[in-house]
Amino acid sequence: MKVEKNLQDNFIFQSLTHIGSYFLFTKQSMQWLFRSPYRWPEFFKHMEFIGNKSVFIICLTGFFTGMVLSFQIYLGFSLINAENLVGPTVGLGIFRELGPVLTGLIVSARAGGAMAARLGTMRVTEQIDALDVMGISPLQYLVSPRVFAATICMPLLTAIFDAVAMLGSYLLGVHFLGLDEALFIDKVNNMIDPSHINEGLFKAACFGFIFGTVCTYQGYNAKGGARGVGDATNAGVVISMVSIIVMDFFLTKLIRIYLGWTSL
Amino acid sequence: MNAVEIQELKKTFDGENYVLKGLNLQIEKGNIACIIGFSGTGKSVLLKHLLGLYKPSSGVISILGKNIADLQDSEMSSFRCNFGVLFQDAALFDDMSTLENVMFPINEYRKDLSYKERKELASAKLDQVGLGKEHFNKLPSQVSGGMRKRVGLARAIALDPDIILYDEPTTGLDPIMTEMVDDLILSTHRSRTGITSIVITHDLHAAFRLGDEIAMLDKGKVLLKGTAEDFFNTDIDLVKRFVEKGVKKT
Ligand SMILES: Nc1ncnc2c1ncn2[C@@H]1O[C@H](COP(=O)(O)OP(=O)(O)OP(=O)(O)O)[C@@H](O)[C@H]1O
Ligand SMILES: [Mg+2]
């Protein structure tokens, strides 16, 4: 009994328990996604919240990211007279890395935090118990539509981010830094392949899935009043952000080396 | 037949301190059972065990002859349709209006009805608990605590369940409303045969008035179970004090 208690207090033991129950939670909520009754109204509601309501902030950050990246790259490339390559370089960086990662970070902070707080509040005020008692699976009603909506919305938002960032890059490069317009467009057209964009969109979907499951898991398992909700939100956002950055590395490696999707 | 049968139910949250310490309780089908006891003796925890929301550390709970530990998750969901529950803090969905809260279970399970009929059914239930039409479109955060409780009550009885559990239905209501809710519990109970009602309450008057059987919990066990008579004629000191204080107060 004593030994068991010590084991349960152990940090490693606790982390492993959490990871195990996270995967179980993910598996179950995926299974519920394919069981009727399908929660279409819920799904569209969350699409609206995660997707539509993020568009403005995504455009804003995308535009400035595109501009600042162009400027920095221009400064460097002008040293070696390679200004003409600013367009494609910015494009590759945005499409493959910055687009999905920044979108993931922004949306997970915005929508992921809200999801964790919402589910946490529902947990501590017994609303999740009430659903359970009505014979409605909270995983199906609350979790699956959110995770699915996050997974679908992330590539869409990333596409917007990409487009707006390129627009920013174009405006800054052509109108303020004096790059040649025709060359800029031609180089981008030549050197960037749709597969580069797809790589980023695929990553974005994975990031959406990650922050969707992590934040709902944290909220769903919140304990102990308002403070528990705060802790869950905090943990949800922090873990999502770190996982997105770490997973980005492995996903890149997976896509480029093992799947061989993209050239260059 | 017993609607609820609990044998040697023990529950601990942290592995050391037991909240329920070997609790035995039978509740006959068709009765109103009142559960009374001091604050913090585990009444709400007991209720959550009956609903399968907590798993017993040890012991057996059978409901309508089924051991609920044997039920798979999917069976559990359909089994729970027999239940109507009023949680202690009502547990209303805070993004839905009061009317939508009552409509929620109706929408899920009465797909045979048209939207209008479902809405009428929900309004009728809210009428029953004495909530005025002007409050139908307010959010739970915009109505008073007592009103929330009544909306919770309307939601609990929306689907005419076989077993209804009330966790302190009248705490926080004024005396007139209290009597009305007690009457409502009685009339709901009598509206069909075979309904079992389990009422957790601090209000001894209500317990003696409603209860076909009354159980007093103390320190995680059943201290005394019987009729109102038994409670007045008992020798157990703690029960005597509880009864005296409870009856004198009002
Ligand atoms: N989830 C939980 N984790 C740990 N301890 C808990 C939990 N739920 C309840 N307890 C403990 O169990 C005990 C009984 O709580 P319970 O809510 O059942 O009391 P109660 O009899 O309903 O009281 P009241 O009449 O005030 O509602 C309390 O001491 C409480 O601290
Ligand atoms: Mg209680």
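^ adenosine-5'-triphosphate complex. Chain B touches chain A at residues 15-16, 48, 51, 53, 77-81, 83, 85, 87-89, 91-94, 104-105, 108 (CB under 8 Å). Residues 92-160 of chain B form one domain.
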